[in-house]
Design brief:
349 residues; alpha+beta; 14 helices; 6 strands; binds iron/sulfur cluster
Length: 349
Amino acid sequence: MDHGALAAGLLAWYDENAREMPWRVGPASRKAGITADPYRIWMSEVMLQQTTVAAVKTYFERFTHLWPTVQDLAAADDTHVMGEWAGLGYYARARNLLKCARAVVADHGGVFPTDRKSLLALPGIGPYTASAVASIAFDLPETVVDGNVERVMSRLHDVHEPLPLSKPQLTELAERTTPKNRAGDYAQAIMDLGATVCTPKSPHCDICPWSAPCLARKNGTAADLPKKVPKAIKPTRKGFAYVAQTPSGAWVMERRPDKGLLGGMLGWPGSPWEETAQEAPPFAADWAEVGEIKHTFTHFHLFLRVMVANAVASAPEHAVTLGANEFQPSDLPTVMRKVFDVAQVHFDD
Ligand code: SF4
């Protein structure tokens, strides 16, 4: 396939059909010399991790109104930021948002680094976000590859090898099509194509700019692609996790036994993880259920119901109590951090 012609065709389509987004500098504005603000692109990409465009829009507008620059965000109060993030989920992203803003101010003089490697070194920026920021904010020819791009590439080239085995091939194909010029517009164009035209079910091949070269359209296989390796069925286990604070604000935790899953790690006391959840409060307190988390380990899915208790009179002897200053949620294993994410909004600062 002529990759230059593919990119040109998609860009011409984008010029006419680009979606409007609060963080986006559309193709006409870009041509008029307006450049994207890396701070806004970075924030939108962090918010879009695991969240839909529709849900992100209002949060993005509120955040950029409250903190218009990376310096403003870096100086923000943690609790205020966490509070504004509430409802968007995956609170680790909010904590990383703050850490990253502070790192940009402290280590880069308040200016986002342009190259992918330096971006990757910042908190909360993984390979996809680094490529997205490098291409959209700085117009560098970095390739964004997410589920949308994999779907479009597998169809365009009629790749039948299932995901994730086909990932390297699809990534290479995506890289070959990424143009040197207008890389930022191209990255956004392929995202728009995947979201609005080459949709998972019933792709709209009749209005697609790649209709002519697309091999899956030609072979009638588009709706069956991409193929995926069937997931092994994992068992599900259930339990309770108990998060409590003493009157002085210390968290009541426990260290897990050295042997077994999460051996030796710090976590919240809880019930055994079994087929049915059985309440097992570690000590008497006024426990209230505030939510549930799901976590997938290699061999099973786990659902934990989250219980909280404020100002508990005394922690049991074997408990580990950590004062607010010593406690770092990032020190916890992911499953325990998920429990904390759900529980923390029910405690005072
Ligand atoms: Fe997707 Fe159809 Fe376009 Fe091929 S022609 S890229 S299957 S929308």
